[in-house]
Amino acid sequence: QICNQHNAEAPNLEQAFHSMAQTEPNLDHDVSWFLLPSYWAKTVVAFLSFLCFANSYDGDFVFDDSEAIINNKDLRAETPLGDLWHHDFWGSKLSSNTSHKSYRPLTVLTFRINYLFAGGFHPVGFHVINIILHCTISVLMVDVFSILLGGLQFSNKGRRLNLAPKTSLLAALLFAVHPVHTECVAGIVGRADLLCALFFLLSFLGYCKAFRESKNSEGHNFSIFWVLVSVSLGAIAMLCKEQGITVLGLNAVFDALVINKLNVLELIQKLLHKDKSLESAGLLKKGLLFRITLLMSGGASILYIRWRIMGTGPPAFTEVDNPASFADSLFVRAINYNYYYSLNAWLLLCPWWLCFDWSMGCIPLIKSVSDWRIIALAALWFCLIGLICQALCSEDSHKRRILTLGLGFLIIPFLPASNLFFRVGFVIAERVIYLPSIGYCVLFTYGFSLLSKQAKKKKILAVAVLGILLINVMRCALRSSQWRSEEQLFRSALSVCPLNAKVHYNVGKNLADKGNQSAAIKYYREAVRLNPKYVHAMNNLGNILKERNELQEAEELLSLAVQIQPDFAAAWMNLGIVQNSLRRFEEAEQSYWTAIKHRKKYPDCYYNLGRLYADLNRHIDALNAWRNATVLKPEHSLAWNNMIILLDNTGNLAQAEAVGREALELIPNDHSLMFSLANVLGKSQKYKESEALFLKAIKANPNAASYHGNLAVLYHRWGNLDLAKKHYEVSLKLDPVAPGTKENYNLLRRKLEQLQKKGG
């Protein structure tokens, strides 16, 4: 009957819903919206979700992608797979005090597979997987919303019925095209949120399958197997991102409200009146306590294992990451946390002002009740309290269920990011509201159905919602295009968060990487002005000033940086370089050793220390420092080169040759090493081998005047005067003022003239 009608084509669906109306109100009844068969509904959702983010497929690695992917050694084949289970998301050991403690081994594993199949760091494959994941999740949302909005009903054949096809389609479309999801989809590190959401939803749908055997979801019979599958999928979700564990709490809420039709208000009243008839309240019937015990024990076991793997306490964040959490006053902390919640809610309601980072002064602290922003906080709680009251006190069980599930999906997945249980390392992060947006879509759709019920012109309301969807699609396309490159991403944030020092820092860094130092200085200075303790901005600004020979200001900035953060190894090294340039060698040496003290494995610092020792003619110390650099980083070409040149200049040709051959075995395609070794071999009269290396170096870098000039010297010594003349001329053409080349060329010409005279 009902089930037979529902399994028929779309025109018969309405009859089925009218039959159901006798038992429970149907959301779709008064909604003017598209009624599509399940397959077509999912196709439309998949197409629109793809359309929103398709233009991000060929974007670059941006922002956090550099640390999580490019600089993450866990992606490379030489790193044992077992290391993924002991490292954090960024490739650091979890046991380290400096670890971020974000344990997401399955997400890192997918990055590693991407890297393997792409044959390197090619972002297209990474982006394509993210887009596919979002499309898959959006399609799954049709089923999830049909349960949240229409309830859980099965046919006689055990097939789940979609009792709200119109509203579930609308909610899925709202989810698929929400602009706040752009960071998760267009930013590759957002894969953690996508994978977490995928297994989160599979866990929820798996839990629903546990009741397939009980025809009308009375719940007397249920499958323990599917409950355990749901717990396992929740564990997998947590191994993709931490908030995945919250699905177990949502499953418990769903079980109580939908399967057991528990009236929370009635239960509270019975508890307050010490009524022992809790059986009638639905708490003990249908195996609810047993299933919740399974969920809770599974969740507790997962959290315990996670804590054991983490090894130490929570990560240490700084004040700039989350200033409210460092406030001395409990009142200031509480009021700012709630203000952050209201901003997250606003991003769901009006996702127009989006930013890659909301820290570092982007949102100034509220320190007084006279701050006008208190209004936002009050508005949030006014709405929440109103919804909670309706969810608890409404006589309409259908309304209670939808509102409670909507609030549950809105709030429970957000709890790990709420600062309530532990300090988090951000103020607002758009990626963490990927899952909570499910709750928003439920509440929005339910509100739309209520308005449709009251509205006389339902089509106008439907057109308005279509307009919202269209605007969101365009906003998604615009925002995902901004995520295609760091320059566009960072500049887009200037108008949203002009007080954010990190935004100015990143714009400056991007400009510096492109060689535009003058513009970079401007943004670095602004970053330091906005945050006078921003040591990374000071370090980068000091570096540029050092390269422009503005050594005095560079030293002041770097000295201030290490004063603020005494363990900032990079700033100590750069300070040493500046002091070396100012010929304050003892201070420079001390700065280098301080940097190495704070970062034991620091090859670049050993390299610079070697240069200092070479300037002081402490040749043995220089060679030892460079050797340390190559041990720590075998591909450190500059350190190898300096060792070869120093040994060559001091007459240790045999040792120089040995070092050169060792270096070329490790870095066989480095033309500068070929050139240095060729010089040594030429002096050792190994002309043939020297010639071969010179020619190979020239093939790799044909426009290097010194390569042609030194090959000409080799031919000159060897007696091959015509080839010597040819390469002298090429060298002078490339660099007319090359030191020594013109004199050697003139000597050769005189010698050739003398030979011609003798021959004549």
Summarize the structure.
The chain has 760 residues and is mostly helical.
Keywords:
disordered N terminus; mainly alpha; two-stranded antiparallel sheet; 66% helix; 760 residues; transmembrane helix; elongated
Topology:
Layout (H helix, E strand, L loop, with lengths): L1 H5 L6 H8 L17 H16 L11 H6 L34 H14 L4 H28 L2 E2 L5 E2 L3 H12 L5 H5 L4 H19 L14 H17 L6 H13 L4 H9 L5 H4 L6 H23 L19 H20 L24 H20 L3 H15 L24 H19 L3 H25 L3 H11 L4 H13 L3 H14 L4 H13 L3 H14 L4 H13 L3 H14 L4 H13 L3 H14 L4 H13 L3 H14 L4 H13 L3 H14 L4 H14 L2 H14 L6 H19 L1
Subcellular location: Endoplasmic reticulum; Membrane
Enzyme class: transferase
Main location: endoplasmic reticulum
Q: How would you portray this structure in words?
A:
Keywords: Endoplasmic reticulum, Membrane, Repeat, TPR repeat, Transferase, Transmembrane, Transmembrane helix. It is a multi-pass membrane protein. It comes from Anhinga anhinga (Anhinga). Belongs to the TMTC family. Its main location: endoplasmic reticulum. The chain has about 750 residues and is mostly helical. Among the domains are: about 200-315, no CATH class; about 325-480, no CATH class; about 700-760, no CATH class. It has 35 helices and 2 strands. It has helices spanning about 1-5, 15-20, 40-55, 65-70, 105-120, 125-150, 165-175, 180-185, 190-210, 225-240, 245-260, 265-270, 280, 290-310, 330-350, 375-395, 395-410, 435-455, 460-480, 485-495, 500-515, 515-530, 535-545, 550-565, 570-580, 585-600, 605-615, 620-630, 635-650, 655-665, 670-685, 685-700, 705-720, 720-735, 740-760, and strands at about 155, 160. It has a two-stranded antiparallel sheet with strand order 1-2. α27 packs parallel to α29. The longest helix has 28 residues, at about 125-150. The chain is elongated, with a radius of gyration of 34 Å. Mean pLDDT is about 90; it is low at about 1-25 and about 215-220.
